[in-house]
Structure formats: C-alpha cells, structure tokens
Design brief:
alpha/beta; Spore Coat Polysaccharide Biosynthesis Protein SpsA, Chain A; Jelly Rolls; 6-stranded antiparallel β-sheet; 22% helix
Length: 484
C-alpha cells in the first residue's frame, strides 16, 4: 500500500449472523465459518488488511469468541495487537469508539480502518488500492466511508449519495459525501440505481482516532464519557482486554451511522467498483457462489435433480440432501436442524430463530459442535443417565483441572496420545487404550503431542449438564461453573 503512517485495522467481530441459520448460530456465528472458501470470513478479513502499510489488527468482540479469534488468527500466522472484550453487545458506535480510544492512548492520531469481519471482498489488491486512495483525505481530517458500486436495486442495504457522478471508470477518487439513505423501498432503490449517483453503504470507514473522537465529542458526548470510562477501567485477562462492565452498561446501543456519521460534516466517500458482499442471507450466499447454468449451487453431499435457481447445502458428510424439481429454494441441512425456504424469504430466517427460542429449543443458538479454547466436542448419543461424546483436543492444549458432583467418565483414545491426571496419578493413554474417571475424582486431560488428540467420552450419572464442574486450575482463567 506504500510507505507512510501505518493503517490500524479494527475488525468488528461480535455479530450472531442469524440470517444464515442453521449454519450460523450465536455459539459460532458466520464470521468463523468457511462459507465461501478454505478460510473463514474472519480470517479472510484479517488477511485482506495485513501486509505492507498495515499494523496488527485490533479486534472487538464478545467474551464467548475470544479464544476462537486467537486460534483462527494463529492458524493464518497472525496475532492481534489487542482484543477488546465487550461485556455485552451495544451495536457499532460504542465498539468503534472503544477501539479508537484504545488506539489513541497507544498512538495519538492513529489512522484507523474499521471493517466488519464477515464480508466477502475477493479482490484484495483492488480494495487495498481504495484504502490507499482514501489515506490523504483521512489524514486531513475527513471521516471516509467506502461505497460499493451497485449492480441491482438492493433493498437490504443502506445507500450513500454522492456529490458527483463517479465516471465510467469508477476510479477510487475521494469526493464529499452528500448523505446517507436508509434501506429503501424497491422503487426508490431502482431510481437510485438508474441515477448513477448512489452507492451501497458497506459500513467500512477510515479516519484518524482524533477525527472520530472529535465527532463523538460534538455529537455524542455522553457516549464518549461512558465508553471512555469503560476503556480507562478495562482489566487485562490473559491476552485480552476486558472493558469495564459498569460504565459499558450505561452506553446506548446505537450504530455508528446514527450516533455520529449522519450528523458530521467532514464526510468523504471513496467509490469501490470491485466485488463485495456482506453475505447477509442465504440468497446472498447463492448469488455469490457462482451458480451453474441452471442457477443451482450445491455444497457437500447434496444432489440437485431438475432444479433451478436453488441452493442445496449439506454440512455433514454422513448426510445426503437431495432436491427434486426445486425452483428458487434454499435448503440447508445440518445434523440437528434443516432449513427449507423460498429465496425471496431468505431475509426472514431470523424469524425462525426467534420462533425456536420461544419453544426453548437449543438449535436456535447452539451448534451440535461445541467449540472451546482447547478444541471442541460433540454429543454422539444421549440417554436418561448417559451421554457419549467425541472430544478433540488441540496440540499442546489442556482442559481444566476439575471434578464433577454427579457423573463419572470413561475415556477411550482413538487418535493421538492423552496425558491424563486422575487424583494423584498421571498417565499417558495412547490409541485404543482407555481410562476410567470415578465420580468426584479430580482430573485433567491434556494433549502433549503435535497433532489433534481425539477420544470418545462415555458419561454416566444422575446429571450430565456442562455446568457440573468444580474447577481447581485452568490455563484459560475461566471461573467456577464455566463450560469445558
């Protein structure tokens, strides 16, 4: 991107992605999934904003995702400059302001690029060129937003009104932003598309920390004071920075657009003509997955017979999803939930999540595979007084030293080697060997090897909930009753 002041990426990573249910759920939202390639959306976003001219990223997220973030960054040989933990989600304005105040304390006047972590931008070089084109305006005090060249009359996005036509070449030349347009009705969206002076609002911004803090001082002083206290009183937690919960609870949950952008006058927009998608629903996944001549996209063990303009996706290799004679249908099969919807109703999937919550069904929020700092597990069979799990422990990782009031456990190693502590005895358990953990025994499982360790756990007892844990020692600093 060239020499000069480094750009500090700020990745917003707190969304739950309910419109992509059942693949994306609160326990493991879409930014961490491999929706469109070999990397997760979060990993692709981090890599897009890395290299020459970029500093290490600052990540703003919730507590549940902190270890997933470190693991996913490490797997692409990256590490964050900081990971700010929100006590609770309060929309984008407080999150972006917290990152700005954190960076301002480290490097006054830092150049800060804010980006959601779940967007798809295939042409990384072209996007970096747009960022480079925006640097001068941002360093001169403008708040710069990036507008996407529209290719359809989209009603699911906000739009940006330009001051002048971007021209046939659509070069990334900064120009004053005339205004924001809320998600429009179809007729207005078509008029803006035809007029050629409106772009989609991508929610990506470039500015100095000084400019943003001044904007909050002018337009949202109460939030500046509250978030300022949350940053000042933040506490370190291993590799993370936990924002103080008391002042954070006072903050109004509001988007950055409503809080300051729509009230500011120093706004600049840089047009971006490259491909972009926020993958805001299954219709977007279908559109951005290169449908075949019949408009069909199949993923995994899915088969389409005489189908048109449809998406069939099977997420488990042991499932077979078959569609016959489907037209304009989205069908997503997970081991514990199946979604079938018309593509025109793809934006309403969030309503299904709400309905499942009302019924008290775990499928609303939780995936069958439960991710933890040390790896993951999934239930294979559940009865009244027993449960069978598959547990995968990452190389070098360790579960907490713990005991249980209500269950005993039997572990059978099927891959790798486990280092197992049961009370005062430490032993190595290799493939095809097993060990018994009596009810009440203090125990720990570790993976001392360099490959994933896999075991089958058979639990038996009167209560098998994940909160039946007395924790004595934990490298991940989780409290009593925390999972895993």
């Amino acid at each position: 991107m060239g020499a000069g002041q480094a750009v500090h990426p700020v990745l917003l990573c707190g969304g739950s992605g309910t419109r992509l249910w059942p693949l994306s759920r609160k326990s493991y939202p879409k930014q961490f999934t491999q929706l469109t390639g070999e990397q997760s959306l979060f990993q692709a976003s981090a890599l897009r904003l890395a290299g020459e001219g970029f500093a290490k990223p600052v990540v703003v997220t919730g507590s549940d995702y902190r270890f997933v973030i470190l693991e996913q960054l490490a797997s692409v040989e990256m590490q964050p400059a900081a990971t700010l933990i929100e006590p609770e989600g309060r929309n984008t304005a407080p999150a972006i302001l917290a990152a700005a105040l954190h960076l301002e304390a480290q490097e006054p006047g830092a150049l800060m690029l804010v980006a959601p972590s779940d967007h798809v931008i295939p042409d990384q070089d072209r996007f970096r060129d747009a960022v480079a084109a925006a640097r001068g305006a941002a360093q001169d005090g403008s708040i710069v937003t990036f507008g996407i060249r529209p290719d359809r009359a989209e009603t699911g996005y906000g739009w940006l009104e330009l001051s002048r036509d971007p021209g046939p070449d659509f070069d990334p030349v900064p120009q004053p932003l005339r205004g924001f347009v809320e998600k429009p009705q179809s007729a207005k969206a078509q008029a803006m598309l035809d007029g050629g002076q409106h772009l989609w609002n991508a929610g990506i911004f470039l500015f100095t920390t000084t400019s943003l803090i001044e904007a909050f001082k002018a337009h949202a002083p109460a939030m500046l004071e509250q978030v300022g206290r949350a940053v000042e009183q933040a506490q370190p937690d291993l590799a993370f920075c936990r924002l103080a919960p008391e002042p954070w609870a006072e903050v109004e949950p509001i988007s950055i657009d409503y809080a300051v952008m729509e009230k500011s006058e120093n706004l600049t927009v840089v047009p971006y003509a490259g491909a972009w998608s926020d993958l805001g629903g299954w219709d977007a996944v279908w559109r951005d997955s290169d449908p075949d001549a019949s408009g069909v996209v199949v993923t995994g063990a899915a088969t389409a017979i005489d189908c048109e303009n449809s998406l069939l996706r099977a997420e488990d290799g042991q499932q077979a999803l078959v569609g016959i004679g489907l037209k304009d249908i989205v069908a997503i099969a997970m081991p514990d939930a199946v979604l079938v919807a018309h593509r025109d109703s793809a934006q309403d999937v969030k309503d299904a999540v709400t309905a499942l919550k009302v019924q008290g069904l775990s499928q609303a929020d939780t995936l069958p595979r439960d991710y933890r700092p040390w790896g993951w597990f999934e239930s294979l069979a559940v009865g009244d007084r027993f449960q069978v799990k598959r547990i995968v422990v990452n190389p070098g990782a360790s579960l907490s030293l713990q005991s249980h009031h209500h269950r005993a456990e039997h572990w059978i190693v099927v891959q790798g080697t486990a280092k197992v502590t049961v009370d005062d005895t430490v032993s190595l358990v290799t493939e095809n060997q097993s060990i018994y953990v009596p009810l009440g025994a203090v125990h720990r499982m570790e993976n001392p090897g360099k490959v994933d360790m896999v075991l089958i756990e058979v639990q038996s007892g009167s209560y098998l909930g994940e909160d039946d844990i007395i924790r004595y020692d934990d490298v991940y600093a989780r409290g009593q009753g925390a999972k895993g």
